Inverse folding.
């Protein structure tokens, strides 16, 4: 009988150890896996979502703000400088064209008119002198003044309009 009790106790011990404890351990592992780990994963996901992603979104928003605004400002400054230089050169070339036109065509006709007028009323040498003087000195200075004035004035005006 003693041997039977020893066998029974060993059997019950093994049964309790292997089956009952195994089922308890399975239940506990499932519980830990599904409830505890789920709550930990929920907590971690909320933490990651609110703190880590918030900091990433703050970083990205600051980065994008600085990057986009900086490059937009640089691009607008570059564009305004480019357009102002383009319009300065365009206006300067137009003013040079106008000054050359005024110098060679309009003022030449005025000087021819003056030379013809003086030729018929006073004498030919004075008229030639006056036509050369009007053509080369007075009108050249007027045309240079007009080209500089037009280029500076119109370029400043267009820069103000563009900026």
């Amino acid at each position: 009988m003693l041997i039977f009790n020893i066998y029974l106790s060993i059997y019950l011990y093994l049964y309790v150890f292997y089956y009952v404890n195994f089922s308890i351990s399975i239940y506990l592992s499932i519980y830990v896996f599904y409830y505890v780990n789920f709550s930990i994963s929920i907590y971690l996901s909320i933490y990651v979502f609110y703190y880590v992603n918030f900091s990433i979104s703050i970083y990205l928003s600051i980065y994008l703000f600085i990057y986009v605004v900086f490059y937009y400002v640089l691009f607008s400054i570059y564009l305004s400088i480019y357009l102002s230089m383009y319009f300065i050169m365009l206006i300067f070339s137009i003013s040079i064209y106008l000054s050359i036109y005024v110098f060679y065509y309009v003022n030449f006709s005025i000087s021819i008119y003056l030379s013809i007028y003086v030729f018929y009323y006073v004498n030919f040498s004075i008229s030639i002198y006056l036509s050369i003087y009007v053509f080369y000195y007075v009108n050249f200075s007027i045309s240079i003044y007009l080209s500089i004035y037009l280029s500076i004035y119109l370029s400043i005006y267009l820069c103000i309009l563009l900026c």
In short: The mean pLDDT is 63. Residues 17-162 form one domain.
